[in-house]
Design goal:
Number of strands: 14
Order of helices and strands: HHHHHHHHHHHHEEEEEEEHEEEEEEEH
Number of domains: 4
Helix content: 25-40%
CATH class of the largest domain: Mainly Beta
Radius of gyration: 30 Å
CATH topology of the largest domain: Immunoglobulin-like
Distance between the termini: 17 Å
Number of helices: 14
Largest sheet: 14 strands, mixed
Structural class: alpha+beta
Length: 583
């Protein structure tokens, strides 16, 4: 069309090309669709962010001189910030040590995991400073870059090194290993690394076939102090103690982790290039997660909801990663949780709704002993009572562990629980995030791994709670409407629970409605980790949203928008042609 217009004897008419009306069609169509489907969820939910340390934390442009004055200043910081865990003498026997898993580092042995130096060598001052700055994920060691200035971190680094100064020649500074150039991270490199992991070095015997730290040796490993330790779950990149980049992984493989069975001998059988291949494979095991979204979108389907976690129908549902933390709100607390993430999907049809929950667990715990109730801390006396504060028994000592490296002599089940408010509020008010409160009861769907083993039993029990002070109460048999099924494989539980959208018991059961935000929370127990009762991993409230079918008027307005745009285009073309012909 543009060639015809421009070929006329008159000057070319510079009009919007014929492509623009086509763009207009798309714009109008999209706008028409969005007008009737968009929901202002962001305004309702606010923002939820998870801060991470920048890569440059632990690096430095200038180094504080190591002087007696610096060490003395570092001693004062150590006594305030570090002594409760590492002890007055730096031997890892501080007042809190017996309650921490893993135990704090014993500086006096001179054995350090996170180094850029050779096996059994001391870390460089820069290595030590970096660990103080960045902390150690998966442990009680925080990132002191958030607490101390750079100068203070250097000072405490210099003081801590006095605890092991006699272990190494004073005139010999530790040297960093040389790191060769990294080859391309390709599918071929990952495949070679996998062969080393699975066959040549048999890393899987500790780290598991799929890298979840669930290998056959994982529960029997001890460090050089005789304490039980667990191999790293390589799929969780946020738990890598010394960094999760390929270079960090290559460094750990090359130097080994002093004080653990992960020695540098593994690396000696591999060339530099092969160690890079192994690092590429380990990097590939890291599972990407998306944190920050708080809405679980339940997908509308036509088929029946199945209890099989492996059924392909669950792939239709969008996954939501829910972070968990230990329950430390009330005693008895869970200071050392083993489950820190649950991934959830949801589907529903015109009759019922289902949830698929997945989380990593190194052991399948399907026995449950009757155990005595855990100790509860007595109430603290009034400040003016003049009495000493009673000892708090809610932080159980973990050492020495039992002979099988468990932190409890009992067999305890694995379990998971979904929590809903019985009656969701129309506004922003929600029950207390942990088991509700006296005015806002919650409906609980409690799945038990031991019951899951009995094909004749229903492994899910519906409960109600009005706060944490009284145990949750099971509903009567005729109100038990939730069904469930779980599967365990390669260090991962996958559990499905489902129920009818509505029930007759409106006083105790959540009633699901499409298009409405319903608060939802999750609790997980790891039996091997000694978790039972109030000791569990918990989430804060997220929201469940059952998607609404697109109304027919949305399509009508979309079609109307397209027809209108096409009509405008046709009118514009005819008008241009008439003007062109008149000239």
């Amino acid at each position: 069309m543009s060639e015809t217009l421009n070929s006329s004897k008159s000057k070319p008419i510079h009009l919007v090309s014929s492509r623009v009306p086509a763009i207009l069609i798309v714009v109008v169509a999209i706008c028409s669709f969005m007008m009737f489907t968009a929901k202002p969820l962001d305004a309702q939910l606010g923002d939820m962010t998870f801060a991470e340390l920048p890569d440059d934390v632990g690096t430095f442009s200038s180094k504080l001189p190591n002087s007696p004055e610096a060490k003395e200043a570092g001693k004062q910081i150590y006594m305030k910030r570090c002594m409760p865990c590492h002890g007055i003498n730096g031997d890892g026997n501080g007042p809190a040590a017996d309650t921490l898993n893993p135990r704090p580092r014993d500086f006096t042995r001179g054995l350090f995991k996170l180094r850029t130096t050779a096996w059994k060598d001391a870390p460089t001052e820069a290595d030590h400073f970096r660990t103080v700055s960045r902390g150690i994920p998966g442990t009680a060691m925080p990132a002191f870059a958030r607490i101390l200035s750079e100068q203070e971190r250097w000072q405490v680094t210099y003081f801590e090194r006095t605890f092991f100064a006699d272990k190494f020649p004073p005139d010999q500074q530790p040297k960093e290993i040389s790191i060769p150039n990294e080859p391309a991270d390709s599918a071929d490199s990952v495949a070679k690394g996998k062969s080393f992991f699975q066959e040549k070095l048999v890393c899987w015997t500790c780290h598991g076939r799929e890298g979840r730290g669930d290998g056959p040796l994982s529960m029997s490993i001890r460090d050089d102090w005789g304490n039980p330790i667990r191999p790293r779950n390589l799929t969780k990149n946020w738990q890598y103690k010394g960094g999760n980049s390929t270079k960090d992984i290559f460094t750990r493989i090359t130097t080994g982790l002093n004080g653990t069975p992960m020695s540098a001998d593994f690396a000696k059988s591999l060339s530099d290039e092969d160690r890079w291949h192994l690092a590429h494979y380990v990097k590939s095991l890291q599972r990407p997660i998306k944190l920050g979204d708080v809405v679980l979108k339940s997908k509308l389907v036509k088929n029946d909801i199945v209890l099989n976690p492996d059924d392909p129908m669950w792939n239709q549902a969008e996954a939501l990663d829910i972070p968990l933390s230990g329950q430390v709100h009330v005693p008895p607390r869970n200071e050392n949780p083993s489950v820190d993430l649950v991934t959830v999907r949801s589907l529903f049809n015109n009759k019922e709704i289902g949830f698929l929950l997945e989380w990593d667990d190194r052991t399948k715990d399907i026995k449950n002993d009757e155990v005595p109730p855990p100790a509860v801390a007595p109430a603290e006396p009034a400040k003016d009572a003049g009495e000493a504060k009673p000892a708090n028994p809610t932080y159980p000592a973990l050492y020495p562990p039992t002979k099988d490296n468990k932190f409890t002599p009992y067999n305890l089940r694995d379990a998971v629980q979904i929590q809903f408010p019985v009656k969701p509020s129309e506004g922003t008010e929600k029950p207390h995030f942990f088991l509700g409160d006296s005015s806002h009861p919650v409906n609980l769907w409690y799945w038990m791994a031991d019951k899951n083993e009995d094909p004749q039993a229903n492994p899910v029990e519906e409960r109600n709670a009005n706060g944490y002070k009284d145990p949750a109460k099971a509903q009567p048999p005729d109100s038990q409407n939730v069904q469930g099924k779980g599967q365990f494989s390669n260090g991962r539980w996958r559990v499905v629970m489902k129920r009818a959208l509505t029930t007759k018991d409106t006083n105790n059961d959540i009633q699901f409605k499409q298009g409405k935000l319903t608060p939802i929370a999750f609790h997980v127990w790891d039996g091997f980790n000694g978790e039972t009762g109030l000791q569990r991993s918990i989430s804060s409230w997220s929201f469940l949203l059952l998607e609404e079918p697109v109304q027919s008027k949305v399509y009508l307005f979309t079609v109307a928008g397209i027809i209108l745009a096409a009509g405008l285009e046709f009118w514009a073309i005819r008008r241009v042609r008439r003007r062109s012909a008149g000239r």
